[in-house]
Amino acid sequence: MGLLSKKDAALITDPLADNNPITIQVLGICSALAITAELKASIVMALSVMAVLAIGNVVISLMRNIIPSKIRIIVQLIVVAALVIIVDLVLKAFAYELSKTLSVFVGLIITNCIIMGRFEAFALANGPWRSFLDGIGNAAGYGLILIIVGFFRELLGSGTLLGFKVLGDPIEKTGLYAMGYENNGFMLLSPMALIVVGIIIWIQRSKNTSLIEEN
Amino acid sequence: MEHIELFFKSIFIDNMVFATFLGMCSYLAVSKKVSTAVGLGAAVIFVLAVTVPLNWLLDQYILKEGALVWLDAKYGVDGAETLDLSFLSFIMFIATIATMVQLVEIIVEKFSPSLYNSLGIFLPLIAVNCAILGGSLFMQSREIPSLGLALTYGVGSGIGWFLAILAIAAIREKIRYSSVPPALRGLGITFIITGLMAIGFMSFGGMLTGGDEKKEEAPKVEAKADKKDLLKKEDAKEIVAENTKINK
Amino acid sequence: MSKRTDSNVYTIVFAVVMVLVVGTLLATVFSLTKPTITTNQKIEKQQNILYAMGVNDNDETSANFVSTKVAQEEFSKYIKKQLVIEGDKVTENDKAYLIDVKKEQSKAKEGKTRRLALFIGEKDGKTFYVAPIRGKGLWDAIWGYVSMDKNMIVQGAYFDHKGETPGLGANIKQRFFMDDFIGEHLLDDKGNFAGITVAKGNNDPKNEDKIDNEVDAIAGATITGNGVSAMIKSDLKLYIPYFKTLKK
């Protein structure tokens, strides 16, 4: 750990487990539910949020001493929105194929409360380098949950992973399907994302009992 | 009639929380007690009812492609009717919402301190509630045709959100007396209950597919497809195979 | 430090500067990128039309357009005629592919005559009639191109969407869904226009029955599927008078 001090390293590792943005801080749930029917979409979303959150955190952190406190929420929202719109326009012009894949996520990124939450809770009070690390860490923790949920929903719901038919072909009845296995189409519906996240929380808190909430 | 239809549709079928999963963060975070849930829910209804019509005006007269035609007609600005500012809609909508929320906060604080005390702390939370921005964006993408309908839509979706947070808060108050596995207590069980409620709300979707399809007589085509034109499975497969071939 | 940033004057000045900076920045980026974006969109439309008539780079499983470099060349090679149908008038127009279906639809709503684009392509001695369609999915707009023969039997289809749920509604642009339409009849056995319904609980999952006016729906994407059925019905119906003239 030559590059990062212990305190800085904790900024990245904490949100992965004990201070996870989704399961503990309750941030960024909407997008976690909307796009996890497919593993690929989960990965793309996780990476996009990481980019926006890290850059946004640095920008807000640099501006933290000049933002008037009365209108700070508007300023924060505008910074995110402007950032995302610019990236979207540039992609549309120079990487059109990529932008078509990402355009679905643009709106979801702007409204993702994980971004506002970290601006408010961290970037406004810390320097750019630490804010950058915080952004990376929180986005990684968020992405981790997204990828776990996406993995199970795609595997159980459509029997594929990243589009590859890992369990055989359901129509031609090969692989597992030859033995009478059926896809659980229910896993593809968004309510199941809520239930999968609920189960992740259950497992996490059984392992780490200090996280259990008082009733 | 279309007002009533849109109203109930936005409450039940397109419920913000259960159908589109918007506004989840504050829904989960502020649903421990019924009284606070009512406060936040009321504030969401109010803000949606104000911002959706406001953003409708903004969209109609400034952002849409060709929306600036009035500039040309009134002030003779050339080429105004071809301007397309819709790339600005995200930022404009967000700015409107944040401004409105802050304005409402200031006004309520000034004129009704008691209301401010019960509502005030929720107002800043609302600016970051994605249900609010979602409402405006849906209004834009679904092309709601009039200001009145935009208002109906705003109020309807607000009530839908209110209903959802009220229901979950009531359930959470009761669940305190049940023996939930310790690790599931609080957030975990809330997630799972919301999932089950969402599955329940999916059945409202049947209201939409049930009877509203207008029977419209399609114009008759005299020319009937000949029997030999009817494609059978083999032919179809052939076409698929043909289309798969790379055409150079 | 915080004293200085709390004053009203500072807040207002900051807001004004912020709006100016962000506004200029966005406007600059937009006007710089606009020409490239427009070209990209033009090429995409050509690729879409070519895809629907089977000119594409499809491999075993995935849908691929002809490459952007050759799109324009291939378009002029395969598309023989571009027609604009306006009421009874049929004119040729080599910019027909740029007709904005959304605008034409809103024109029709206002009671004006809608311009319909139709592309006549030839490939391997067969004639394809390609028509654009547009409608609404769950979240936002969906659109596509359908190519037919003169009996309105589908020869190929391309669908796209703005923001459908990845893994669910977004699958309308996957091969398994689009290929299902190939060989489907738009007319019923009496020769009346029936469209193609994206049907749930279809007892024909391999889609062997091509004359039932039905294709199998995508699990979990009911509303998007209904949107596809609706846009096929409402938009392709308008071409019936033209296809009648072909029969004579």
TrEMBL record, chain A:
A molecular function GO annotation: oxidoreductase activity, acting on NAD(P)H, quinone or similar compound as acceptor
Location in the cell: Cell membrane; Endomembrane system
Catalytic activity: a ubiquinone + n Na(+)(in) + NADH + H(+) = a ubiquinol + n Na(+)(out) + NAD(+)
BP GO terms, sorted: sodium ion transport
KW Lipid metabolism (keyword) present: no
GO CC entries: endomembrane system; plasma membrane
Stretches that traverse the bilayer: 41-62, 74-95, 101-119, 131-152, 185-203
Keywords tagged on the record: Cell inner membrane, Cell membrane, Ion transport, Membrane, NAD, Sodium, Sodium transport, Translocase, Transmembrane, Transmembrane helix, Transport, Ubiquinone
Pfam families named among the record's database cross-references: Rnf-Nqr
InterPro entries found in the cross-reference section: NqrD, NqrDE/RnfAE
EC number, UniProt record: 7.2.1.1
The keyword Ion transport belongs to this UniProt entry's keyword annotation: yes
Superkingdom field: Bacteria
Membrane topology: Multi-pass membrane protein
Position of the signal peptide: none
Subunit text: Composed of six subunits; NqrA, NqrB, NqrC, NqrD, NqrE and NqrF.
Membership in a protein family: Belongs to the NqrDE/RnfAE family.
Function: NQR complex catalyzes the reduction of ubiquinone-1 to ubiquinol by two successive reactions, coupled with the transport of Na(+) ions from the cytoplasm to the periplasm. NqrA to NqrE are probably involved in the second step, the conversion of ubisemiquinone to ubiquinol.
Name of protein: Na(+)-translocating NADH-quinone reductase subunit D
Species the sequence originates in: Polaribacter marinus
Gene: nqrD
From TrEMBL, chain B:
Domain of life, source organism: Bacteria
Transmembrane feature ranges: 6-30, 37-58, 87-108, 115-138, 150-171, 183-204
Membrane protein topology class: Multi-pass membrane protein
EC annotation from Swiss-Prot or TrEMBL: 7.2.1.1
Principal location class: membrane
Coiled-coil regions, chain positions: none
GO molecular function: oxidoreductase activity, acting on NAD(P)H, quinone or similar compound as acceptor
Presence of the UniProt keyword Hydrolase in the record: no
Statement: the UniProt record of this protein carries the keyword NAD: yes
Catalytic activity annotation: a ubiquinone + n Na(+)(in) + NADH + H(+) = a ubiquinol + n Na(+)(out) + NAD(+)
Subcellular location: Cell membrane; Endomembrane system
A Gene Ontology BP annotation from the UniProt entry: sodium ion transport
InterPro entries noted in UniProt: NqrDE/RnfAE, NqrDE/RnfAE_oxidrdctase, NqrE
Keywords assigned by UniProt, alphabetized: Cell inner membrane, Cell membrane, Ion transport, Membrane, NAD, Sodium, Sodium transport, Translocase, Transmembrane, Transmembrane helix, Transport, Ubiquinone
HAMAP family in the record: NqrE
Purpose of the protein: NQR complex catalyzes the reduction of ubiquinone-1 to ubiquinol by two successive reactions, coupled with the transport of Na(+) ions from the cytoplasm to the periplasm. NqrA to NqrE are probably involved in the second step, the conversion of ubisemiquinone to ubiquinol.
Oligomeric form and interacting partners: Composed of six subunits; NqrA, NqrB, NqrC, NqrD, NqrE and NqrF.
UniProt family annotation: Belongs to the NqrDE/RnfAE family.
PANTHER family found in the cross-reference section: INTEGRAL MEMBRANE PROTEIN OF SOXR-REDUCING COMPLEX, NA(+)-TRANSLOCATING NADH-QUINONE REDUCTASE SUBUNIT E
The name this protein goes by in its record: Na(+)-translocating NADH-quinone reductase subunit E
Native organism: Polaribacter marinus
Originating gene: nqrE
Automatic annotation (TrEMBL), chain C:
The reaction(s) this protein catalyses: a ubiquinone + n Na(+)(in) + NADH + H(+) = a ubiquinol + n Na(+)(out) + NAD(+)
Enzyme class, broadest EC rank: translocase
Cofactor entry: FMN
E.C. designation(s): 7.2.1.1
Domain FMN-binding as annotated: residue spans: 137-239
Gene Ontology cellular component list: plasma membrane
Membrane spanning residue stretches: 12-32
Coiled-coil boundaries: none
Modified residues (FMN phosphoryl threonine): T222
One annotated GO biological process: sodium ion transport
Primary residence: membrane
Record-linked Pfam families: FMN_bind
Subcellular location: Cell membrane
Membrane topology term: Single-pass membrane protein
Complex formation: Composed of six subunits; NqrA, NqrB, NqrC, NqrD, NqrE and NqrF.
Reported function: NQR complex catalyzes the reduction of ubiquinone-1 to ubiquinol by two successive reactions, coupled with the transport of Na(+) ions from the cytoplasm to the periplasm. NqrA to NqrE are probably involved in the second step, the conversion of ubisemiquinone to ubiquinol.
Stated family: Belongs to the NqrC family.
Name of the protein in its database record: Na(+)-translocating NADH-quinone reductase subunit C
Gene name in the database record: nqrC
